[in-house]
């Protein structure tokens, strides 16, 4: 608990932590009470120093709720959007103090008090204005902070290639891995040319025994600062029809190999007292995903692994992050057998991940996806979430991948395995 509080309150001066707590209180307790429980006739709301009553006050509590909610989240993650909005909002309160005292009080005493409060809030606005460097998102200089080299698995296309590009742009030398030599070398060559960084390539299949050890050996003597465990693929369709070897591959690439590779690379990072490990998880790991059952289970493994390591490694100088993209515009969909359905650009996933690195155990790119995931995962019964996810997944698949359907229940005669004689769908 103490360590958790330390993580939550780290990276901000005490006065800013006080603002953060105030925002949490307003967003979670005061404004909901004000909105939903306080009688309309007693409701009052102040904006720009002007007092509103009744229904107008109720309506104007909504933007207050939004402001304090955004403030609570923004201070928690020290998001760049807080600057200049936080100092401007506090400045609005400072001006409001003078206006309010002038409009609604008599005599110089209360007006002087309003002016004093305005000065105090003005000073707070100034302090927030000067604190701009704190709202910087993620670590700026990854090379300085973590080390000279970055290892990116699955860098021949998609999110991995986007990670490699961004890390090269930040001046890190790279070790890139994938199975297909040609696209991997093309990515490496373009990064050497554009950014002048050193790029080494390793061709190999991370589902093969001994591959994690081979990668670890290849980077053993490097000042390895950033490890992006990104390689992966999906195989959508009815579980009962999937190729067992392919299912084994998914388990190995998404779960066993990242765990073993992290284990092999960590001692070097711990000895150097710095480093970072990122896992490209997936929103599919946040809940069961029928028709992507093994992929979803393996991504769930990755998520729990990364979030556990984040806590274990606090204070060692090694940061861990699981980035959980939703649908992303890469070759993944086509390779997994899904119908094409667009998605976020991979660069967005990379930007979000690097901003969150060192600040939190996991991150979901896109606030709407984040919100949807919180509702589905935290508010709905797990079984309902699975049904909803399954219904959506079925729409994203060609019909031949969806079957066999549960209509097999109607088949005559006892089927093996099921207590009611129906057995699993065949
Ligand atoms: N696109 C999405 O909608 C989405 C959403 C959430 C999470 N993700 C995750 O994002 C990661 C990257 O996928 P992507 O979307 O960028 O798809 P992608 O363009 O197909 O990239 C996958 C990368 O992983 C490599 N890879 C796959 N299997 C491998 C293996 N057995 N051994 C070594 N390398 C392997 C691929 O290279 P080779 O084929 O050359 O080996 C490729 O470089 C995956 O972990 C995926 O699960 C994707």
Which features characterize this protein?
single chain; 426 residues; alpha/beta; Rossmann fold; seven-stranded parallel β-sheet; 16 helices
Give an overview of the whole structure.
The protein is built from 16 helices and nine strands. The radius of gyration is 26 Å and the shape is globular. The chain starts with a helix and ends in a 24-residue tail after the last helix. The strands form two sheets. The protein has a seven-stranded parallel β-sheet, with helices on both faces. α10 (244-272) links the parallel β6 (224-229) and β7. The model is unreliable at 410-426 (pLDDT under 50). α7 packs parallel to α8, α9 (211-219) runs parallel beside α10 and α10 (244-272) packs parallel to α11. It has helices at residues 2-9, 14-36, 54-77, 82-104, 108-130, 142-146, 158-169, 181-195, 211-219, 244-272, 293-312, 332-336, 346-356, 367-379, 382-395, 399-402; strands at residues 44-47, 50-53, 149-153, 173-178, 199-203, 224-229, 275-280, 318-323, 362-363. Helices cover 56% and strands 10% of the residues. It folds into two domains: 2-134, no CATH class; 142-375, 3-Layer(aba) Sandwich (Rossmann fold), CATH 3.40.50.720. With 426 residues, it is an alpha/beta fold. NADP nicotinamide-adenine-dinucleotide phosphate binds at residues 154-160, 178-180, 205-207, 230-233, 253, 280, 282, 325, 327-328, 330-332, 335, 343. NADP nicotinamide-adenine-dinucleotide phosphate is lined by residues 154-160, 178-180, 205-207, 230-233, 253, 280, 282, 325, 327-328, 330-332, 335, 343.
């Amino acid at each position: 608990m103490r360590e958790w509080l330390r993580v939550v309150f780290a990276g901000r001066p005490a006065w800013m932590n006080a603002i953060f707590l105030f925002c949490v209180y307003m967003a979670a307790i005061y404004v909901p009470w004000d909105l939903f429980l306080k009688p309309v006739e007693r409701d009052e709301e102040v904006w720009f120093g002007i007092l509103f009553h009744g229904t107008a006050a109720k309506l104007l509590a909504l933007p207050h709720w939004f402001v304090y909610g955004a403030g609570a989240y923004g201070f928690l993650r020290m998001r760049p959007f807080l600057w200049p909005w936080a100092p401007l909002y506090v400045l609005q309160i400072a001006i409001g103090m003078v206006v309010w005292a002038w409009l609604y009080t008599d005599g110089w005493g209360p007006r002087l008090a309003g002016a004093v409060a305005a000065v105090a809030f003005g000073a707070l606005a100034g302090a927030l204005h000067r604190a701009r460097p704190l709202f910087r998102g993620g670590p700026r200089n990854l090379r300085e902070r973590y080390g000279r080299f970055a290892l990116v698995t699955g860098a021949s296309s998609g999110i991995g290639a986007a990670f490699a590009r961004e890390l090269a742009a930040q001046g890190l030398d790279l070790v890139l891995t994938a199975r297909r030599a040609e696209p991997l070398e093309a990515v490496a060559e373009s990064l050497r040319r554009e950014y002048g960084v050193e790029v080494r390539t390793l061709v190999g299949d991370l589902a093969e025994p001994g591959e994690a050890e081979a990668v670890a050996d290849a980077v053993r003597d490097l000042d390895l600062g950033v490890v992006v465990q990104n390689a992966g693929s999906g195989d959508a369709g009815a579980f009962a029809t999937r190729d067992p070897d392919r299912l084994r591959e998914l388990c190995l690439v998404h779960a066993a190999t990242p765990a073993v590779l992290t284990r092999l690379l960590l001692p070097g990072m711990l000895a150097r007292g710095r480093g970072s490990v990122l896992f490209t998880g997936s929103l599919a790991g946040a809940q069961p995903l029928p028709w992507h059952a093994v992929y979803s289970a393996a991504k769930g493994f990755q998520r729990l692994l990364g979030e556990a390591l984040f806590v274990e490694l606090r204070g060692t100088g090694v940061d861990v992050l699981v980035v959980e993209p939703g649908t992303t515009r890469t070759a993944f969909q086509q390779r997994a057998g899904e119908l094409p359905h667009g998605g976020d650009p991979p660069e967005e996933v990379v930007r979000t991940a690097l901003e969150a690195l060192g600040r939190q155990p996991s991150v979901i790119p896109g606030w709407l996806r984040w919100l949807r995931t919180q509702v589905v995962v935290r508010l709905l019964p797990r079984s309902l979430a699975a049904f909803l996810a399954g219904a959506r997944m079925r729409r994203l698949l060609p019909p031949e991948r969806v079957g066999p359907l549960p209509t097999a229940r109607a088949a005559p005669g006892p089927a093996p395995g099921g207590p009611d004689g129906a057995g699993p769908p065949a």
